Amino acid sequence: MTNTKLQAFIPLFYLVWSDDLLTKKEFATLQQFIHSQDWLSTEEKQELLSKTSISNPPSRQDITDWKNKIEQTIQEHTAVKSIFEIVLALSQNDATIQNLETSFVQLENDLGILGEEALSNFRTKSETLTVTHHTDANFDVQKLTSLLDGEQATIINKVKAVISQPEFRLETTTDINFYRQKVYYWCKILADENLGNMAYPKQYGGGENIADYFSIMETLSYHDLSLVIKFGVQFGLWGMSVQSLGTEKHYAKYLKDIGSLKLPGCFAMTETHHGSNVKGLETTATYDHETQTFTIHTPHPKAQKEYIGNAALHGQMATVFAKLMIAGQDYGVNAFIVPLRDENGVVLKGITIGDCGHKMGLNGVDNGTIRFDNMVIPKENMLDRFASVNEEGAFESPIPSDNRRFFTMLGTLVGGRIGIPRSALAAAKTGLTIAIKYSDQRRQFGPEGGSEVPILNYRMHQRRLLIPLAKTYAVHFALQYLTQRFLKKTETEMQEIEALAAGLKSYSTWSTTAILQECREACGGKGYLSENRIDALKNDTEIYTTFEGDNTVLMQLVAKNRLSEFRKAFGEMGSFGIINYVYENAKSVIAEKNPIAIRKTDEAHLLDSEFHLQAFEHREKTILASAAKRIKKLVDDGLDAYDAFNVVQHQMIDVAEAYLDRVVLEQFQIAIAAVKEPDTKQVLNRLCQLYALSQIEKNKAWYLEDNYMEAVKTKAIRKMVNQLCWDIRPDAVALVNAFAIPESCLGELV
Amino acid sequence: MTNTKLQAFIPLFYLVWSDDLLTKKEFATLQQFIHSQDWLSTEEKQELLSKTSISNPPSRQDITDWKNKIEQTIQEHTAVKSIFEIVLALSQNDATIQNLETSFVQLENDLGILGEEALSNFRTKSETLTVTHHTDANFDVQKLTSLLDGEQATIINKVKAVISQPEFRLETTTDINFYRQKVYYWCKILADENLGNMAYPKQYGGGENIADYFSIMETLSYHDLSLVIKFGVQFGLWGMSVQSLGTEKHYAKYLKDIGSLKLPGCFAMTETHHGSNVKGLETTATYDHETQTFTIHTPHPKAQKEYIGNAALHGQMATVFAKLMIAGQDYGVNAFIVPLRDENGVVLKGITIGDCGHKMGLNGVDNGTIRFDNMVIPKENMLDRFASVNEEGAFESPIPSDNRRFFTMLGTLVGGRIGIPRSALAAAKTGLTIAIKYSDQRRQFGPEGGSEVPILNYRMHQRRLLIPLAKTYAVHFALQYLTQRFLKKTETEMQEIEALAAGLKSYSTWSTTAILQECREACGGKGYLSENRIDALKNDTEIYTTFEGDNTVLMQLVAKNRLSEFRKAFGEMGSFGIINYVYENAKSVIAEKNPIAIRKTDEAHLLDSEFHLQAFEHREKTILASAAKRIKKLVDDGLDAYDAFNVVQHQMIDVAEAYLDRVVLEQFQIAIAAVKEPDTKQVLNRLCQLYALSQIEKNKAWYLEDNYMEAVKTKAIRKMVNQLCWDIRPDAVALVNAFAIPESCLGELV
């Protein structure tokens, strides 16, 4: 094509022959177009048509020449923005061609060519924003680590040092027996380091430091999670059940040996038929006044204890939860110390142990079943802090209601609902460290001719990993707050703290499950190889959403607590109560919900922490009031209350979630307010903004339904979430480095 | 309390002493209340106050008596609806008490008592809706099974019979070596049954039945997924790559032995540094005209082949994708048959095999790495359907563009993107069968005094399992449609079918990942035990979202295809194009978006299939146009196109999702329209309604932002989703029974 006019067709020829999406139909379209150009001579048409014959395609050389011409044109005319501008340039601004813009553009469309993308493939793209974005920390990593660790820095560093030792090299065996023994051996080392008994009273050899105990659980969770759970079963569940439910005589007899792991034990609560509904346990403890004994018995196979950690192999004793029977009367669930094995590990008569076998994860923990066949234990083995049998053989308790006593007992065990979400948090931190560092290094795709791009520069990848990163920071501060509340608890606050613990247990463990899913996918095939750790993190934490209370059940407890608090605050949802509530709520909402506010989209407003908290609070309050009203209405309309609570079960989860969202945001903001160092403050602020806005984005349907925001605002929030991801991306690697997870825990990928 | 007036306090006393949520503060509230009642004498006040002293609680007998009195009252006055009505009855309708309603109710509120729930705990609830709801199939299960299996019923039943044999007892070993050999042994049996070569031409011993081949893949997926993948690697990837990319000489030489598993082989495409971006592969195949050979070489360690199934142990040959180099010139990626091991399994010189080791799942598949050290192969080993080296040693191809040829080659391999989503579908069916049958049997919690309730009667549980059940049915019909389109494909349709396959691969595999997550949680601790199968289903399918193309990358390909189609239909998004589009769209939307329609909430409308499809189509079209406009605007504003596509990446996923949602709904509706049998039709219709409305609910933020629906309508849809779950629940077990999954594949739980 020496005729410059005809050169106008080069871009189209090149695109149809190199694009994988075009078929016969499109070639026909191009041929028609050529035919219809009256300004072309018959010979010219023939020449052009010869380049569009599927049966006689151009040579590779033709295609290469065309490509070179196009690239050259772009280099000479850097401002070109469309395919037609190249067409024009190649024709040397031919006057005829100039008048054909509409039909050329139409042809481009008819061929379905994505002009922008096609054009972009010709440029050397080393300088585009996507390509050049990179890691560049804007704050001091160590300062942030210190802030995260706080007063527990010393114990955290001690635990990190222990798990970084060669003995703690992560286990890769698939042999359950070997793995279980390895985990037991690790626990022994930790016990020898006085880490297991950290929460016990000093007089029984303990460290009397509950705050440190929780930090030990969390830090160990960077390592093997079977170890954490085995550790938690022995020193937390077994030991703390003795400490919380027993009295002095039990402490003196058992605590020291539990803390040193001389006396491995179990926490035998769950039964095959009763997990979440612990009140329905069927194991019996029948008192015999003559022999001063209890007989522990499993009435039928489905009442066996199941999933009990430490039971299958190592446990020598167990805290067993059973219905206390005295003279034929049922006194509800109480706790008893029951021996399972002798010192040599031989299972005792009256005890039958089963093995839960291979599990999805946590295979270093020896979960088992326990059946009791009229196992007789001495009277002193009843853990008698809240109930006992007196000298006359009669039941005694400072708490007369069985129901209330039962929940009081459970309340003392709330520590487990702090340890587990903190362990889940650590697992999320590990997963994000692996995935973010990998995504910063891994390059895939890129502009034609340029180098490939780190996948963390892609928007979807940023959303997948950086929104979870922000949430993980948020949950960190919320769990710090929960721990502080627990450590400083007073009796009046217990209900609130129990609800908060139940709620944050669900919030953190669900968050971890979702985050590790993203991490696995974000690491592609590498994320599937066991050597890269995401496998174990994901499978081990999978059960966190179930044990220590099924999350869905716990969320309903949280919601009931909120409803109860709501009634105290605003009274019966009769017409009076509603007016009262609406008035109370209106005072704060009137400014937030005005026609300007619901459409406000300026950056300062969208990033304003006060706006975030107000929006969270508004959602929390409104959902709560709405659920209360709905239950009332269903019952008024004649539905049985039991059914009414089932009908609103879905809303109950929302009630709990909105409450937890608000607590998490509030505590994140409070923590940031206390930070003095400006760079640290700034990066945390951004994370907090991202957490807040991404949660609003997630719940935007609710905000739109409620008319708290209009579409223009929710759309602006989506953009801002994307922008914040982009802004945080350079700091992302530094932000995971601030978790300061030992190298030995991060697998082979980073 | 013989004084009947005082009996009015019994309900409050009982509640404060038995509720686990009340603390000192609430007791003080109750005491204050008693003090403030002027109508009580000092002695009466004393008597009442004596029942509220924490230091001197009532006896167990007191509490039991109170409870009995309350229960008796309720039995005598079945219409009571509030705590106060019991108060009144107990006081024998005392006139003073009658006037105290407001203050008693206020007290109840101040104590935070959830009256409805408290009241419900006193009733015998054997008759509530939640308790009595149960399984009761309303259709003929076998007829539905026949409908699902269709023309492939014979082969499906054959495969089910094979995998139900004792040799196919599911493997529980954690020993990778043993497991890999077992899976190989299973594959051998399947090959002997002529199941592996089902898709190959008859002249090479095959069954020449691609439809049956896909059904074999899907049905095998009820069994062990390692087996499916090993089977798919051998007969699908390895065999079909020879068939699709090779020519007659290769068929004659290899196909029979591949189909009989005499010649185990690999599909060696992915490299460590290049997975999704296959075009960037770095392995080279250098032609030497003198010796008439190619030299296959791995230029650096990160260019090794990775994750290659059949490589670590069994593969004797591989289809290797490598850049063809002739006389120093790069001719793009082409495919070559390269021997790896001799017949005795000894690795050949020039080949280095690595083992990917333990993975999150699919441990019965021997994935490995392959490195080539100047491995020389004869010229005839080039799979030369689309490109070859001629007698003069020059490159030849009917497709001159390397880019286009590469995508044409890949296009012939699209079958994998049908097999995988169908395998994922089967895994979802298995998981749902286990979880739904378990939830129908598993009872937990229930009204006080009544029996416990099957957990599938709880709303949250229904939402967790029945919405996924509806989606699984929807995906079933969509994948049937995809398979039919593929079987009857013409060249013009190939782009559309490739996009559809890429999209449905993502849609189905993501769906399965999410569904199995719900199944695991819905089965609680039981779902965590390996013996119950969800472990394996979840971990084995986890990689489905990554292999055969990372889902996020595939969804962008789908979106680009949609954008390209859009441009063909509506032209350049200049002002003219937009007007044109708005006009086109307005014609159909004008009726749907009128002020009445956007608020319409009557049941007939909400359940109307036409409304569903219109809503899906509207979303699809609008999102697509919006993405096109946005890209155009970003480029017009000066952003580099490469960056512009990154900015809208999030929207691109939405474009693809909305498209796939519409296809899935449309095909579900079309399939139902063809059903004649009324009971089957009805139950499928309900599932389709649930699928449609739950997807709208999921996307309601979009509908609200677009003003296609107002809040009143989205809220009504949420209620209808819940109602449909409730209505489908009695059929749920029958609906999973209709999948007719062999008992031996369902684990120990059901």
From TrEMBL, chains A, B:
Coiled coil: none annotated. The keyword Glycoprotein does not apply. It comes from the Bacteria. This is acyl-CoA oxidase. Its cofactor is FAD. Its EC number is 1.3.3.6. Residues 411-560 form the Acyl-CoA oxidase C-alpha1 domain. Its main location: other. InterPro entries: ACOX_C_alpha1, Acyl-CoA_Oxase/DH_mid-dom, Acyl-CoA_Oxase/DH_mid-dom_sf, Acyl-CoA_oxidase, Acyl-CoA_oxidase_C, AcylCo_DH-like_C, AcylCoA_DH/ox_N, AcylCoA_DH/ox_N_sf. Transmembrane segments: none annotated. It comes from Flavobacterium flevense. It is found in: Peroxisome. Residues 610-746 form the Acyl-CoA oxidase C-terminal domain. Keywords: FAD, Fatty acid metabolism, Flavoprotein, Lipid metabolism, Oxidoreductase, Peroxisome. Pfam families: ACOX (PF01756), ACOX_C_alpha1 (PF22924), Acyl-CoA_dh_M (PF02770), Acyl-CoA_dh_N (PF02771). Residues 187-259 form the Acyl-CoA dehydrogenase/oxidase N-terminal domain.
